Amino acid sequence: MKIKYRAIDILYPGRCPGCDGLLSRDDEMFCAGCAGVFKCIGQPACYKCGKKLNNENAVVCNDCIKKDHSYERGFALWEYNDRLRNSIAFFKYHGRAEYAKVYAVMLKRRFSKEIEALDIEAFVPVPIHENRLKNRGYNQAGLIARELGKLTGIRVLDNFVIRVKNTVPLKELSDKDRAKMLKDAFAVNKTSAEGTVIPENIMMIDDIYTTGSTMDNISRLLKSAGVKNVYFLVLAAGRGF
Fold first, then answer.
1. CATH code assigned at 144
2. What average pLDDT does the segment 9-29 reach?
3. Contacts 24+ apart (CB under 8 A), 188-193
4. Is residue 208 part of a domain?
């Protein structure tokens, strides 16, 4: 295992998620220079997927107009930009597991009312394949989900959904190729599901939302397992139109 999940780093974050610089105090989330560096998605935002809209008169983005998504609704915290891309890259690939606590605090501050209003009963992190898990040492979505679960008191079904197909990175693929690549990529973990009371309302957790292919696949899977309503919560989403 290349990098082990470091519990002490989650409890005591030592680096700023905005610049990766050292923090002067354990209770800081961002350094003074990075406070407010990430721009929250405001209105207008797509009602379906949460992307920031360029058209003030629009209700949903072009992607959501064209697609019949399997999930009910999604929420995204920040607009995707270079600084945020670097932050997430350090979080995922350079062992900065401590960022998860900061991300979770910011998600709770922004979306606690929505989580309560939707009566969310469980968080389900988007899984990564076991090969990547062994190499990386942790699932970034799982870290965020667990920290958010601590803050909200909502249970986390960490292994309820597993990734059985080790797909190539999807960011450069077309929508059609994404859909093909993700076919049968996920499965309900029968061992984890046994004896589990299936929640009616689940919220998937991930770092970035792009086309929705991953969320749609997992949403369909969760509903086939008996979940009634599926939502998602992510750190970032690109702009809609």
1. 3.40.50
2. 77
3. 188/160, 188/161, 188/162, 188/221, 188/222, 188/224, 188/225, 189/159, 189/160, 189/161, 189/162, 191/159, 192/157, 192/159, 192/160, 193/160, 193/225
4. yes
